[in-house]
Design a protein that fits this description.
255 residues, 9 helices, alpha/beta
């Protein structure tokens, strides 16, 4: 695993969490209560636990979500209803919050990963320090995830045949189907990112690509535009809540 020095202060980093109210698979998903608090608040709290001493913003299209965040002492910025992706949404919020472009490195969390760990957030921050690209994470998919279209799979180029936790590869393609065919390892893509700001700006300037619209995966827009995506192998698997079954699984994990 790449490490930075102990004295790095993350001075130009910022965490952004996109959260939209409408969800086709799980209505009003960010407001679903888990242990008495909305899901999006759990994500905010998880980001705060990383203790990086940097701004944390929720970028949302909903005054209701913004109110929930502010009631918890967090900061929320209202963004346009029409954004095609979470990346478009966080870019608008970033420019509203920081028009002078003080913050150069963005940690892009997802609003449906309430148990994202502080360690994984810091690993992303360390990784983007070294690359002018997009970076993200992958973990080995379990048997029950391989055929699940809600679990995004990734074909990755590694320098070694059997990559270990902490190794870094380059994304070749993302799909909801099993890829690559015949592999002994199927990689589950965890949809959290870190960006250099110039790469985020380039990404959102592009129209949604054909493959992105086909697979409904925004990271394919980057690959089609020759934006490199580095992937860190982790052994962590935060539960992404996309469906009622995911929600049940997460709640059961808390018992």
């Amino acid at each position: 695993m790449i490490t930075i020095g102990l004295f790095l202060k993350y001075k130009d980093y910022i965490i952004l969490i996109p959260s939209r109210l409408k969800s086709t698979r799980l209505p009003n998903k960010p407001l679903i209560e888990i242990n008495g608090k909305p899901m999006i608040v759990h994500v905010l709290k998880a980001a705060q636990k990383a203790n990086m001493k940097i701004p944390i913003l929720v970028a949302t299209d909903s005054e209701i979500i913004a109110s929930k965040i502010r009631n918890e002492g967090g900061e929320a910025i209202i963004t346009d209803l029409k954004h095609e992706s979470g990346s478009d949404r966080i870019n608008e919020a970033l420019n509203k919050f920081d028009p002078s472009k003080r913050y150069k490195k963005i940690i892009h969390l997802q609003g449906d990963l309430p148990n994202i760990s502080p360690a994984l957030i810091k690993n992303l921050a360390d990784l983007i320090y070294h690359y002018n690209s997009m970076v993200s994470t992958v973990v080995r998919a379990s048997e029950d995830e391989i055929n699940n279209p809600n679990v995004v799979k990734c074909a990755i180029s590694f320098e070694k045949d059997l990559p270990n936790v902490g190794d870094i590869g380059r994304a070749i393609y993302f799909s909801r189907s099993i890829i690559p065919w015949g592999s002994n390892i199927i990689w589950h893509h965890i949809g959290i990112y870190a960006w250099n700001r110039n790469i985020l700006e380039k990404f959102v300037s592009l129209k949604p690509s054909i493959l992105e619209k086909t697979e409904k995966l925004e990271q394919l827009r980057a690959l089609e535009a020759n934006i490199e995506i580095k992937l860190l192998v982790t052994d962590e698997k935060p539960i992404g809540i996309d469906t009622s079954d995911d929600l049940k699984k997460y709640k059961e994990s808390l018992i």
